[in-house]
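Handout, page 2. Input:
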Amino acid sequence: MTTKSAKRTKRKSDKPERMDIRTIARMANVSIATVSRTINRVPTVNAKLAKRVWEVIDELDYYPNTQARALVSGRSRLFGLIVSEITNPFFPELIQGFEDIAVEHGFEILVSSTNNDPERMAHCVRRMIERKVEGVAMMTFGIEEPLLEQLARRKVPLVFIDVAPERPGISLLKVDYHRGIRQGVQHLAALGHKDIAFITGPPKLHSAHSRELAFSKSLKECGITENPRWIIEGDHTLEGGTAAMEKLLATKTMPTAVMCSNDMTAIGVLHKVYQAGLRVPDDLSVIGYDDIHIAEMTIPPLTTIQMSRYELARAAFTALRAHVEEGGASAKREYNIPTTLIVRESTGFPRGSTVHLNKRRS
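Output:
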């Protein structure tokens, strides 16, 4: 055993019953203030001293009391993340990205899910305040004004998607819904589709409404007439996609393609089409929205509009950090989130077209 290993073993076996920053300071031969600044990741700490502190912390398996540290420093280094529903794969992927970025910069996250319920939203906000988060990313829709006031009174920086009140300390993530959906409609038009349906999301969701408007606008840009009977209300769930596809199957004239307000809806459509004995894309082309990871694994793999969870997470974290560490004076208010079409195998030529028939014969 090396001298260093023996020293490490001895330290671990001799560690005191009560470990605190005084112990760390004594063993690292630095001041208590240096230990405190190192643990709080203050960038001005001498690199050699910080290295000694972290080595002792590692040797002692010491875990700082983050709540006590927050009381002393006034910094919790904790960001809140409120999402709509944890069961939609889009949100766990968003949470993972947000946490990865936060940990990389020495922050922790507190996650809450509202399930689109106002009472749950109130509970989420209360948790954030009780844990003294330094900022909250509202990856959901429809926060009530009194709840917003609770956070505003405490000067907690906030990040919203799509719509945000004009207040200090609030940033906005603006998703370019139109760009990706226009690419999707253009892709279908280039294949020869003119009979295109759209399955919406819940009417109360601003994002779902924006996607539906983008679809209508994109049809006009491509010179395609919108058929109101082919605009079917969905709810962003698998079951909603299945139910919406049942309605389309019951229409006298079926569309040759369907765009969906999210991927979960599109996967429900794929399932119903399979149950009906039809094939995608031979009988119906399908496009989703979000590009969740499972979209690559469906049969066939799903063509979809990608809205990067990582870009959303990165922009949300960047906005909160700017407010916290720069005082918000020069913090950017708006962050643009691009969308783009990802072409896979669920789209093809319209059934009955010359190209489609020739392709099937070959």
